[in-house]
Amino acid sequence: MKIIFFEVQDWEKDALSGKFPDAELVSDLLSAKNSSEYSELEVISTFVYSALTEEVLKTFLSLKHIATRSSGFDHIDLDYCKNHGISVSNIPEYGSNTVAEHTFALILSLTRKIYKSVDQVKNLNFEHKELTGIDIHGKTLGIVGLGKIGINVLRIANSFGMKVIVHTTLEDENLKKKFNFEYTDLGELLRKSDIVTLHVPLNPDTKHMINKENITSFKKGSYLINTARGGLIETEAILLGLSNGILEGVGLDVLENERELNEEISVLTSPNHATDLKNVMMNHVLINHPKVLITPHNAFNSKEALSRITETTIQNVEGFLKGHPINIVSQNA
């Protein structure tokens, strides 16, 4: 079959070309401007920046399968695909443990004053007076959201000997048989947690779930971590919590004013992300605050997670070619 991979990045070239030596690999997006050049293709694969609209898809005369190298698929006209015999596969999961580990990297960096320690030593200052941290063993971790990432955070917290309380929309009693934690409502979680970490999607119900009103409910001297979406927290609430001594530390991998991304893979494929994020951070009071640690939407970005994206894409395409498709989000009508 005639196969082409669009939006190809350097880190995936060898694996894709090794498995599909006859396929074409291009860095360009697929769009209405160039789709007519590829009208004979039977299988295509893209990231999220190729908008596979009806206008684009109707130029393909023999298209049978689309393998998106992303979890999300709202860049693809699924109705058109269903009506024209085109199946679509995606990457269901690639970085839940990766984000969970980054969450604890932020927690430990804050609670043990890692960055302050490193900066101090670089100035040949070996005093300990300003570097006293806290143990997280025995502390209460409040997890908001118990999807795949939240469950991995729970698993790691148990291994540290932390007390864990969870607020989530769907409570799974079977998880309580496997892990040590308790369910609670958001208000109680904020009041009791030494550390609060967010792991929910951004939608109208979760936007500003941490805000100027409920930041005062936080336990005095607590920590707030967000590796999910910036809009979950009202930025003014963070500043209020810091200025009033409510928050001892804040770890953010996302910012409220960051251009909200459909998913983390957008960071790798967007040519403007680095510039956008730099402008946001330059205008943010938080970046220079001594009790705030910000990373550049990087929680998902590990070699292993990127490898899982490529490996699953290969499996999706091979499965289709062999007549045993997997990870299908849209079947033929």
In short:
With 333 residues, the chain is α/β, with parallel strands linked by helices. 34% of the residues lie in helices and 15% in strands. Helix 1 (10-19) packs parallel to helix 12 and helix 4 (96-111) packs across helix 6.
Describe this structure as you would to a colleague:
By secondary structure, the chain is of the alpha/beta class. It folds into 2 domains: 3-94 and 304-330, NAD(P)-binding Rossmann-like Domain (Rossmann fold, 3-Layer(aba) Sandwich), CATH 3.40.50; 96-300, NAD(P)-binding Rossmann-like Domain (Rossmann fold, 3-Layer(aba) Sandwich). It contains 12 helices and 13 strands. It has helices at 10-19, 54-57, 78-83, 96-111, 114-122, 148-159, 173-178, 186-192, 235-243, 265-269, 273-282, 303-321, and strands spanning 3-5, 24-25, 43-46, 65-68, 87-89, 140-144, 163-167, 182-183, 195-198, 222-226, 247-252, 292-294, 328-330. The protein has a 7-stranded parallel sheet, with helices on both faces. The chain has a 6-stranded mixed sheet with strand order 2-1-3-4-5-13. Helix 2 links the parallel strand 3 (43-46) and strand 4. The longest helix is centred in the last third of the chain and has 19 residues, at 303-321. The mean pLDDT is 91.
N-end to C-end Cα span? 22 Å
Q: What is the CATH architecture descriptor of the largest domain?
A: 3-Layer(aba) Sandwich
User: What is Rg?
Assistant: 23 Å
Q: Given the structure, what is the number of helices?
A: 12
In CATH terms, the superfamily of the largest domain is NAD(P)-binding Rossmann-like Domain
- Percent strand equals 5-15%
What class, by secondary structure content? alpha/beta
* N-to-C SSE string, H for helix and E for strand: EHEEHEHEHHEHEHEHEEHEHHEHE
**Mean pLDDT over the residues:** 91
Unreliable sequence segments: none
Overall number of structural domains:
2
What's the β-strand tally?
Answer: 13
CATH topology description of the largest domain: Rossmann fold
Shape by Cα distribution: elongated
| Major sheet: arrangement of strands | 8-7-6-9-10-11-12
Helix content: 25-40%
